[in-house]
User: Fold these one by one.
Assistant:
Number 1:
Amino acid sequence: MGIEHKKIQLADRLKNPTVGIIGGTGFMGTWLAGILGKKGIKVVPVGRTTTITPVQAAHDCDVVVISVPITKTEEVIKEIAPHIADDKLLMDLTSIKKRPLEAMLKYSRCEVVGVHPLFGLDISPDEEAKIAVCPARGNIGAEWLKKLFTDAGMVVATLSAEKHDQLMGLVQGANHFSTLALALLIKKSGFTLKEIQSCSTQTFMKRLRRIIAMLGQSDELFGALLMENNFSSGFIDQYMEMVNDLSDIIKDKNGEKFRQFFMELKDFFLV
């Protein structure tokens, strides 16, 4: 099938598609099903307890979505991608983009897009929801998805898989690492949580709420975010170096160095 003909076929499919979501009974799969349902789009959720199998969904659906844990993503892609016709769309909803996209490109011949919702279970209704879209093969599917998410009131960031994973090494890797380190410090401080809360400022209460929200989720999720993204460890190493530098300034009671450090941050953030 020629490239132009594939584009026409996919564009026609996306006018009234059936979307199969592998892992459709999980949080992100359910979230996407809700977005699609509001548009009147037929959704076929595929999970451990559904009668339809991932391979059947790959054969039958116009759009196939991979929404499984990061550690299982490439395995599922390898299983189902060869069964997806050239004029369909394959996408994933994982928080790491480079390796899943490489696998989707390797094992399929259809259009491929990587998607990462930049929010979790603890997002509040009044918060701005952002989503990353990483086109990989073709542009019909990517444009359809961007419109879908924009119509749903979301802010779409379009970027390469490589750039996405680099940013997530900082935004998720170093961030979650620092949150877990603070949680461990609190646990080992000798204070009870009640004592800490009784004297916490509003700012620190927000940090505590973030820790509690994080620990209410899966250790597998955060372990994968920290360990499966190859860029996370580099940012964590840099973070540790900067923590040590700042610690030395404070131990030495060096007011001049602290002022220089503080002013450098002002120059970056207060623009």
Number 2:
Amino acid sequence: MNDEEYIKDLEKTIGKFLEPIKGIPFHIAIKAVYGKEVFKFDREDEKNEELIDDLAKAAEIAGKNASQHGIFTNRPNEAGNKIADYAKIALKQLGLKPETPKRVDGKRQATGYPDTCLRDKYERYIYLEYKTYASKTIDSTQRTFYFSPPPEKSKSKIIYDIPHLMLSFEMNRAIISGKECYIPIGWKIVDLYYIKVDVKHEFNTNNRELYKREAIIREGGLQSYRPSLASY
């Protein structure tokens, strides 16, 4: 095989690799990425049913409190972060313990999936994600849920073989004190075991590679425009 044929085959291979992979069961994706099982939530277990009752009560409490105060934000996705705060307060009031997930290295990390590692009244754990949605977009195919593999195994936030649930609030626009805001008008508890996810690949690089000497055509300084230390 000559160089031209090799390059063409390589281009075809990379092109196929970059095609999105669709319909992967969530529990299989988590197992492949993190090496952890996602257990189906057993509705026949009395303790589990009690937990669902508590999650439902927490959703009602959080929804009522958020509706009274309103969630004021210019970005709809930020409403999800704020309703999560209401939900965590409600969960604690009911005797549950929403904790910032612990990583493999023992550190706790708030950003990224999942939002919370929830400990119930029987000291059992589940992973709990918080989301928001609008009734007009609930059947949309727009990406609203995602997770990314950790850059290092030590930074993985998924360290237990447990169920993964989602507490999601339906949001609507409202006017409180003359200002537009969001209020929750409904909620859902979802067992993520049943969902399917897609994979979309991307290319990326770092600054060392991006600014390597042979790639720079020309550069210059702007010393005269830099503020002096005295200006600080």
Number 3:
Amino acid sequence: MIFLLRTGAAVLFVLLGYLLLTRLRDKGSRWFPLSGSAVLFATVFAFVVAVDYLTDYFDPFDAGILLLSLIGVAATVVAFWLLQRYLARRLPLRRVRRRQCPYCGFPVGDNARCEGCGREVQAACAHCAAPRRIGAPFCGACGRA
């Protein structure tokens, strides 16, 4: 019963932190950094609850500090790799919204080519042949993906 209560609390904190984060990010609020700390709290709480139950089955200090350090390094590398993948997917869309080159981030305005890297930033839409920003999820003329 206590396991279900702790798990429910961890899930609730994570969901509330995520909802707070997305709502404040969309509004551009000054309280946005505080929402990040709420997500961090929920994440730490979930790890504490998970580790509390894992240590009932084995004692991590029997393996030694070196093994614990290696696990921490591996977790950090995996988290960094996942963050880089996430940013690589999101960065071009963010740059297109800011009217920047999706490749280098140089401001392009209405130009067909980037003045920073020389790449083409507009191409013809595959459906209606209207000029479309490279990296934009939908065409501005026909609305298709």
Number 4:
Amino acid sequence: MCGRTALTATPAELRELFGLTETPDVSPHYNVPPSQPVAAVRALRDRPGRRLEMLRWGLVPPWAQDPKIGHKLTLARVETIATTPAFRDAVRHRRCLVVVDGFYEWQRRGKQPSLPFFVRGADSRPFALGAVWDRWVSPDGEVIESCAIVTQPARPPVDAIHDRMPLVVERESWEAWLSGSLTEPDRVAELLRTREPALIAYLVGPRVNDPRHDDPSCILRAPTEQQSLF
């Protein structure tokens, strides 16, 4: 799954890493829940290049009667994305990369409280999650651009915490993922078979459970006595 995300990299770092056409205006966030804006890289429509923009997390399809449907469409399963009505057109024509420093997963423990883990890259650099986006316009002209993060069966080390995780798109596949010319489902599916990403997961404190908390303490390792719970 993917319950929350974090992004604290500087605008200059993001511009260099993702080859953006301009320096983005982003602020650090340590605990971003669904329904809030996430930083997404999209290909420019009229010329070569990439741009980072803020999209609402929770996809609202163009045919939706109510934008609240986005609360149910925050994640898109890789197994069904090509056939699910809300995602099947977007995965062919409107793919993006959600940029993160890491994401959170919660380990269920029966009747005991779930344990929150922060998952980051082994090199501590920002990385990209596969996502799809869409544009919704209300009858009175309100425009909402939103996205859903693609998920897959969990790989190490996340598989010890949860059975699913977001799709990490490796750097060499960014251009193909963002390409508007790649529209055949079979070819898109090839991109989803990425190699195992180099990730690190560690237990964090319960402060992250409340999405109102958005500060560096959310990503700090839990004290040693709590680590022993895992």
